[in-house]
Design brief:
Elements lengths: L6 H14 L5 E2 L3 E3 L8 E9 L1 E9 L1 H12 L8 H19 L7 E3 L3 E4 L13 E8 L2 E11 L3 H5 L1
Antiparallel strand pairs: 1-7, 2-7, 3-4, 3-5, 3-6, 4-8, 7-8
Length: 160
């Protein structure tokens, strides 16, 4: 994966957490993720399409997600409530949307967020697209941003 695709997400998560949650984020050492198991029990997922295709996942422990949602919403929400899932979805939407804006020379769209809550869930990505896992630390706990994107194959579009 082209490193230029990772930088927008690092900048974005730092900016979104700073402005929306008034919270610094420490970016830790990225690695290539080799399993489809979710890193934590709560995952917000956004698809990307256009010149760049794939997915972005923010994954949190339930405890970290609860603390972040409380900081974001200004009130506690039960992890099994629709509002909790909406808040997690909005966090991944803001991070992905901000990063999308940094792809200035690419035509990129993002999907509506999906949120999966529960232990042991799996998030499968295309086998031809590596997934970069970037662990992050906040005062509310740890989270991971997982980026599995690549340039779209435009050769089939040109032939049509």
């Amino acid at each position: 994966m082209d490193p230029q695709y990772i930088t927008p997400f690092i900048k974005s998560i730092t900016n979104v957490f700073s402005t929306m949650l008034n919270m610094p984020v420490t970016i830790n050492e990225p690695s290539i993720k080799t399993t489809s198991s979710a890193t934590y029990d709560v995952s917000g997922i956004i698809g990307m399409s256009g010149d760049v295709i794939g997915s972005v996942v923010l994954s949190f422990s339930t405890d970290t997600a609860k603390k972040l949602v409380t900081a974001f919403c200004g009130m506690e929400l039960a992890a099994d409530s629709a509002d909790f899932a909406d808040a997690v979805g909005e966090l991944v939407n803001m991070v992905s949307g901000s990063a999308k804006g940094m792809f200035v020379d690419k035509d990129v769209s993002i999907s509506c967020p999906s949120v999966v809550i529960g232990p042991g869930h799996q998030i499968n990505t295309r086998s031809d697209t590596p997934c970069i896992s970037i662990p992050c630390s906040t005062q509310c706990g740890d989270l991971t941003i997982e980026i599995a994107i690549r340039e779209a194959d435009t050769s089939s579009q040109k032939a049509a």
